[in-house]
């Protein structure tokens, strides 16, 4: 059976629904510190639990005979800057909780998301390589970089089958964003449909790596389904689909909504975005386990405007 921790979150919700579609509702247990959307709560078992609590998670693993865990709980970049120690404890203690369950053979396989936030201001910005300088300047990035090192360690020393990818900004309409720096690329669609205008908290030429939720879910399930010997990188794989700036996104929206207008008022999140790559080289994921994205900027805008418009 599969357990998703952080199932009420932006990615966790859609990942839970997709895995239930594939494996059947009773095969996929959702868990989070708080209940999630009705669609999630009504589609299968849900357990309220604290991701950092070893007894609570251990009990769920035993109760449902869990073999695979997707650990999607974390405090994201912008929120983490406001509560550094809380973010560190949540992001790290939840990871140790799950890695130790795997080390003790209580579960067989772990997915843990890293992020392009592991890169910092001294990292080469364009087509950022899989192996390069990583001096993250955010609490979230530091926790993801450290988490990668621990995943690699638990694999090498204890044989834990943990798999990870460095998510870019993930864009979706079914769930609200969770306090990230890339949230502008979600908010803009809701505002465009509601008010025909949006004020971006990132400057117009801030290029960031981005991905549509469907591609992110596909990558997550693909890497978990791949034969273990194909997963040659046990820290985390670079992953990408597209890169764009707020200006390029606004231009694409204007093709569908000609009256849409945008203003730029950068806030504290500009500094975070400026420390991240503009684009990512994900050739290793494509070589090792056959990653390829489907959704580009044009299809993203079409899907998002339709999705927001109908939700
Ligand atoms: C954030 N959406 O903005 C997350 C993600 C690369 C961005 O890590 O913090």
UniProtKB/TrEMBL annotation:
<protein>
    <submittedName>
        <fullName>NAD-dependent epimerase/dehydratase family protein</fullName>
    </submittedName>
</protein>
<dbReference type="Pfam" id="PF01370">
    <property type="entry name" value="Epimerase"/>
</dbReference>
<dbReference type="InterPro" id="IPR051225">
    <property type="entry name" value="NAD(P)_epim/dehydratase"/>
</dbReference>
<feature type="domain" description="NAD-dependent epimerase/dehydratase">
    <location>
        <begin position="2"/>
        <end position="232"/>
    </location>
</feature>
<dbReference type="InterPro" id="IPR036291">
    <property type="entry name" value="NAD(P)-bd_dom_sf"/>
</dbReference>
<dbReference type="InterPro" id="IPR001509">
    <property type="entry name" value="Epimerase_deHydtase"/>
</dbReference>
<comment type="similarity">
    <text>Belongs to the NAD(P)-dependent epimerase/dehydratase family.</text>
</comment>
